[in-house]
């Protein structure tokens, strides 16, 4: 068993570029210092190169460079540095020196019993509190998001049979629609407890998850509790309660009492303490709802501008929580009295936030990871059918900035709706009820105006946040965020014999090194390529693929290249672009390399034109191996010596030798 001076773990939200760039940076920094290191990567396909107990035991220090939760308890008793993944890319030398420094605190898990020498500075964690809060919140949101999408879409589809199609007493009732509504509602009902549970898990592991789930159910409380904001508070509260209990029962040795603590003491006392607090929090919030309803009824006869601002702020305050419910239930009650005016503004304010997320990811796709972009696109459907909860993951990501941004758009939509005297006689359904609206086109226009206002603000905030974290969002990440079809592929991976440029089937990805040179041949390298525009280059690549027998339809490949650029530019920096295409007409995975005769304008991170291109061709059914090739290419491009040699090479032989060395 190899022994390492240092061990590390890296991970980012998408598990593609930054995970492996941090790995490469740490490995190169350790090599320069004459140290040995092993890096465990938490990537898109899971954990690669997991650290063994023997490797952990033999290491002198630990570096965790990750934006997601990494199990640190196994590193108990070791000097540990815990930072965001961006720090691993930016300053690997500093992190390694810090991890090996005598002054670095030894990591001790909360409530743990690992021993350190008497002269060591023992600390519970070296992770910054801000980073811990962020990773815990992201852990909850990432587990909640699929439930929001699944439940919201099913509920939206059920409305196609009518707004009241799930009500057995209504003439619109449809049994299949009622089933869709029930299934979707069940999934949406899990949203709040799952959010709380996985925030609790990130803070205090399994016991935190159990208590968080229970507290989340109290926060949900049939939809009348404290909602998703209560779930966030409850999740952290559950984790902190467990950490407190671990300290209280630290006198009981784990060896003899581990089972008693985990199965009885922590869950029973944790649910009692955290659940009681949440129960008490819910009660005054319900009383607050009743007071807000009475206030809103009195406000209806005053200025439509004031009413619109109030309704807009309330609807975007907690996205289906108690404050939102106060406005919605008031509108529903007034509908029963024949007042269709109030509900029009409420609906507009509820529809605008999810549509704003769609606009935001379209305006600034590089500021969001692939899952967030997908959620934004789905929100176009959710928002159109009055499913406000689709905006929750975006609000939870940066609540202090994003919630006010949502409030601005919702307020604008509501104000314009009230000023136009628009009436909506249905309590739900979104744009499905347009035939019932007295001014349908104007209503849609005002909602889109409000959504656009929020969308612009969200895009600006997201861009600023990504820059603040120091992550070059959209440079390598955009280049590596390939089409989702590959993730679901079932075909066997293919290894290419570069000499014959022919595929050779293999049984398992574990047999592959994913060296980019494995899918490169001299025939697929050209220099002094005549091209004046980006599209000229993409046409040339598509034609080259067909000419070299790698694909059968140049037009189809060109369209895929262009579609990929629309999603996010593959222009990187230092004059290099990595366009790639995935299509059914591509026969095998391959890499193409071009040196251009003249610089070509391309949207790049550093704003400089492109002079060289590394392109990947990906079959429609790919097992995910192309992600590895892309990741390893990204690693190469972090090496200054490689980039300089790549730009200086002027013959196919020199370029081929550069990748093969």
UniProtKB/TrEMBL annotation:
InterPro entries: Bacterial_PTS_Sugar_Transport, PTrfase/Anion_transptr, PTS_EIIA_type-2_dom, PTS_EIIB-like_sf, PTS_EIIB_2, PTS_EIIB_2/3, PTS_EIIC_2, PTS_IIA_fruc. It comes from Lacticaseibacillus zeae subsp. silagei. One of its GO terms (cellular component) is plasma membrane. This is Fructose-specific PTS transporter subunit EIIC. NCBIfam families: FRU, fruA, PTS_IIC_fructo. The lineage of its organism: Bacteria, Bacillati, Bacillota, Bacilli, Lactobacillales. Its main location: membrane. GO terms for molecular function: transferase activity. Gene3D superfamilies: 3.40.50.2300, Mannitol-specific EII, Chain A. PROSITE patterns: PTS_EIIA_TYPE_2 (PS51094), PTS_EIIB_TYPE_2 (PS51099), PTS_EIIC_TYPE_2 (PS51104). Residues 491-515 are annotated as: Disordered.
């Amino acid at each position: 068993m190899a022994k390492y001076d240092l061990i590390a773990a890296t991970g980012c939200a998408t598990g593609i570029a930054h995970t492996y760039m941090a790995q490469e940076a740490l490995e190169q920094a350790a090599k320069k210092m004459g140290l040995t290191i092993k890096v465990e990567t938490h990537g898109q396909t899971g954990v690669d190169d997991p650290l063994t107990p023997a490797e952990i035991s033999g290491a002198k220090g630990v570096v965790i460079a990750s934006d997601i939760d990494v199990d640190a308890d196994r590193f108990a008793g070791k000097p540990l540095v815990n930072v965001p993944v961006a720090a691993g890319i930016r300053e690997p030398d500093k992190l390694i020196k810090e991890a090996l420094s005598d002054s670095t605190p030894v990591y001790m898990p909360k409530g743990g019993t690992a021993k350190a020498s008497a002269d060591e500075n023992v600390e519970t964690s070296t992770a910054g509190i801000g980073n811990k809060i962020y990773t815990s919140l992201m852990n909850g949101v990432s587990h909640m998001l699929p439930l929001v999408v699944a439940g919201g879409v099913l509920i939206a589809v059920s409305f196609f049979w009518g707004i009241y199609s799930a009500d057995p007493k209504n003439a619109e009732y449809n049994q299949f629609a009622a089933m869709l509504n029930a299934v979707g509602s069940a999934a949406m009902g899990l949203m709040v407890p799952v959010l709380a549970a996985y925030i609790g898990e990130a803070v205090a592991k399994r016991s935190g998850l159990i208590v968080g789930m229970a507290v989340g159910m109290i926060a949900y409380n049939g939809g009348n509790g404290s909602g998703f904001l209560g779930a966030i508070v409850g999740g952290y509260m559950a984790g902190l309660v467990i950490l407190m209990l671990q300290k209280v029962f630290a006198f009981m040795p784990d060896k003899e009492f581990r089972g008693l603590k985990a199965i009885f003491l922590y869950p029973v006392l944790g649910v009692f303490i955290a659940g009681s607090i949440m129960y008490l929090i819910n009660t005054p919030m319900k009383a607050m709802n009743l007071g807000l309803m009475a206030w809103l009824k009195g406000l209806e006869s005053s200025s439509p501008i004031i009413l619109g601002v109030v309704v807009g702020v309330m609807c975007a305050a907690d996205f289906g929580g108690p404050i939102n419910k106060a406005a919605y239930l008031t509108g529903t009650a007034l509908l029963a009295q024949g007042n269709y005016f109030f509900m029009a503004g409420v609906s507009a304010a509820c529809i605008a936030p999810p549509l704003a997320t769609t606009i935001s990811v379209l305006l600034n796709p590089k500021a969001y990871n692939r899952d967030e972009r997908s959620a934004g696109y789905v929100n176009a459907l959710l928002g159109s059918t009055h499913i406000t909860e689709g905006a929750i993951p975006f609000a939870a990501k940066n609540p202090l900035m994003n919630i006010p941004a949502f409030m601005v758009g919702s307020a604008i939509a509501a104000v314009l709706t009230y000023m136009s005297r628009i009436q909506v006689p249905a309590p739900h359904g979104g744009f499905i009820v347009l035939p019932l609206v007295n001014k349908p086109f104007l209503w849609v226009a005002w909602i889109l105006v409000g959504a656009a206002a929020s969308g612009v603000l969200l895009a600006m905030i997201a861009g600023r946040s990504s820059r603040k974290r120091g992550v070059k969002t959209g440079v390598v990440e955009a280049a590596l965020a390939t089409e989702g079809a590959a993730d679901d592929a079932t075909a066997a991976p293919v290894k290419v014999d570069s000499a014959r440029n022919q595929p050779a089937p293999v049984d398992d990805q574990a047999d592959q090194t994913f060296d980019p040179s494995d899918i490169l041949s001299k025939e697929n390298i050209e220099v002094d390529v005549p091209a004046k525009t980006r599209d000229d280059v993409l046409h040339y690549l598509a034609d080259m693929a067909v000419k070299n027998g790698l694909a059968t339809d140049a037009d189809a490949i060109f369209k895929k290249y262009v579609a990929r650029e629309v999603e996010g530019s593959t222009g990187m920096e230092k004059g290099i672009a990595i366009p790639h295409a995935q299509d059914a007409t591509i026969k095998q995975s391959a890499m193409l390399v071009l040196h251009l005769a003249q610089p070509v304008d391309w949207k790049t991170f550093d704003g400089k034109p492109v002079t060289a291109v590394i392109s990947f061709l990906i079959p429609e059914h790919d097992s995910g191996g192309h992600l590895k090739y892309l990741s390893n290419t990204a690693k190469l491009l972090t090496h200054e010596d490689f980039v300089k040699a790549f730009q200086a090479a002027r013959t196919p032989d020199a370029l081929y030798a550069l990748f093969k060395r």
